[in-house]
C-alpha cells in the first residue's frame, strides 16, 4: 500500500461515518433491499465512483468515496465508505467508538493484512456473498488500523440472498456477527456504539418490557444510536407488505425518513465535542440487491436519484472509471404545473 493512500485515508476517514443508521427490509418476493444514512457535522464532499474490474478475478462496483475529488489529480486511491458490486454484495462503513484493531500482520504471518480504510474496496472487488467475506476474515485476511487517530469503524455486509454480517474489532479481536434478520440473531439493523451485541440485547429487553402485564414503554425520539436502533425496529415491524418493487423501495425511504437528521443545531445527536453544528444526514442510500440498483439523496436534494449498475459498464474489464458528486446539480423538484387537467 502506498504511503500517500494511507495518508489520504487518515485525512478523510476520521470524518467518514461519525453516526449512521443501516436497516435491511423484511424478506419480500419483490427483492432484497436495505438503506443507510451517512451522518456527519458540516462536511459534504462525497462522490460516487464506478469501478470496472481490473481483471477476470475481480468484480465491478459502485463506491462512495469521501473527499475523492481532492486526490484525482495525484492518483491517490481513497477508501470506500459505502457501495455495492455487480454481484449484489454491499459494504457499509460506520463508526464504532472504542474500536481496537488486531495487530498488522507481518510477512511471516499466515494471513494478509487489509487496512481498515480499504475493507469495502477489498470486499467489493473480490467477493459475491457475506459468507465469502466471513470465510476470508476467518481464514486468510486480518483487518488492521491505526491506534493514534479517531479511526474507529465497524462494517455491515449484505448480499443478494438477504444474508447479513456485522464485523467489529473489539479488544484487538475480529468479531463477526451473523444477522439473519429474524429477531433472534439480529433485526437487520445497525447503528453505532455500543457494540452490536449490546443493541441486540437492548431490543430483546425492550420487547420483554412490552410483553409485561402493565407496560409503560417510551418511544425513543432522539438521534442517539440506541434511539435510532429501537425506532427503526419499531417502524420496520409495522410496515405494510409491499406489493411491488416500488413499494419495497418506498418502505426503505420511509424508514430513512425516521432517522434522517436535519442540518443545524439539532439536539439529541451523538456529536462529539467541537463538532460545531453537530451531526446531520449528508446523504441517504437505498440498495436494491436484486435489481442491482442504488438510489440516493443528499441533504440539499431530497429527490431520489437512481443508478443502475448495468448502465455503468461495470462488466468491462479494464474499463474507465466514472464519477459523480453526491451533492450535484440534478433537479431537486418535479415541476407539476403542466400536469394539471381541466375539470369538465
UniProtKB/TrEMBL annotation:
Entries under InterPro entries matching the protein: CBAH/NAAA_C, Ntn_hydrolases_N, Peptidase_C59
This protein's UniProt keywords: Hydrolase, Signal
Signal peptide boundaries: 1-19
A single GO molecular function term of this UniProt record: hydrolase activity
SUPFAM superfamilies associated with the record: N-terminal nucleophile aminohydrolases (Ntn hydrolases)
Pfam families in UniProt: CBAH (PF02275)
Domain Choloylglycine hydrolase/NAAA C-terminal span(s) in chain numbering: 20-315
Family, similarity comment: Belongs to the peptidase C59 family.
Record-given protein name: Choloylglycine hydrolase/NAAA C-terminal domain-containing protein
Species this protein is from: Triparma strigata
Amino acid at each position: 500500500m502506498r504511503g500517500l493512500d494511507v495518508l489520504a485515508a487518515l485525512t478523510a476517514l476520521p470524518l467518514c461515518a461519525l453516526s449512521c443508521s443501516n436497516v435491511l427490509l423484511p424478506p419480500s418476493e419483490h427483492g432484497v433491499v436495505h438503506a443507510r444514512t451517512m451522518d456527519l457535522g458540516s462536511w459534504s464532499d462525497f462522490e460516487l465512483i464506478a469501478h470496472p474490474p481490473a481483471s477476470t478475478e475481480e468484480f465491478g462496483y459502485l463506491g462512495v468515496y469521501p473527499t475523492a475529488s481532492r486526490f484525482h489529480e495525484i492518483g491517490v486511491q481513497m477508501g470506500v465508505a459505502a457501495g455495492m458490486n455487480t454481484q449484489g454484495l454491499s459494504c457499509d462503513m460506520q463508526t464504532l467508538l472504542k474500536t481496537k484493531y488486531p495487530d498488522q500482520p507481518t510477512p511471516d504471518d499466515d494471513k494478509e493484512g487489509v487496512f481498515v480504510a480499504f475493507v469495502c474496496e477489498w470486499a467489493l472487488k473480490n467477493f459475491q456473498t457475506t459468507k465469502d467475506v466471513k470465510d476470508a476474515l476467518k481464514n486468510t485476511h486480518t483487518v488492521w488500523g491505526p491506534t493514534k487517530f479517531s479511526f474507529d469503524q465497524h462494517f455491515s455486509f449484505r448480499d443478494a440472498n438477504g444474508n447479513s454480517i456485522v464485523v467489529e474489532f473489539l479488544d484487538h479481536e475480529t468479531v463477526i456477527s451473523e444477522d439473519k434478520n429474524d429477531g433472534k440473531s439480529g433485526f437487520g439493523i445497525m447503528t453505532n456504539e455500543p457494540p452490536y451485541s449490546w443493541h441486540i440485547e437492548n431490543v430483546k429487553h425492550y420487547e420483554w418490557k412490552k410483553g409485561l402485564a402493565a407496560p409503560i414503554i417510551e418511544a425513543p425520539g432522539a438521534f442517539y444510536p440506541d434511539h435510532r436502533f429501537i425506532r427503526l425496529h419499531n417502524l420496520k415491524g409495522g410496515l405494510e407488505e409491499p406489493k411491488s418493487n416500488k413499494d419495497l423501495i418506498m418502505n426503505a425511504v420511509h424508514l430513512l425518513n425516521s432517522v434522517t437528521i436535519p442540518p443545524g443545531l439539532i439536539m439529541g445527536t451523538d456529536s462529539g465535542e467541537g463538532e460545531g453544528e453537530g451531526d446531520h444526514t449528508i446523504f441517504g442510500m437505498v440498495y436494491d440487491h436484486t435489481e442491482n440498483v442504488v438510489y440516493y439523496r443528499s441533504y440539499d436534494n431530497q429527490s431520489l436519484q437512481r443508478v443502475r449498475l448495468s448502465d455503468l459498464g461495470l462488466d468491462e474489464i479494464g474499463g474507465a472509471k466514472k464519477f459523480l458528486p453526491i451533492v450535484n446539480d440534478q433537479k431537486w423538484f418535479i415541476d407539476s404545473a403542466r400536469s394539471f387537467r381541466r375539470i369538465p
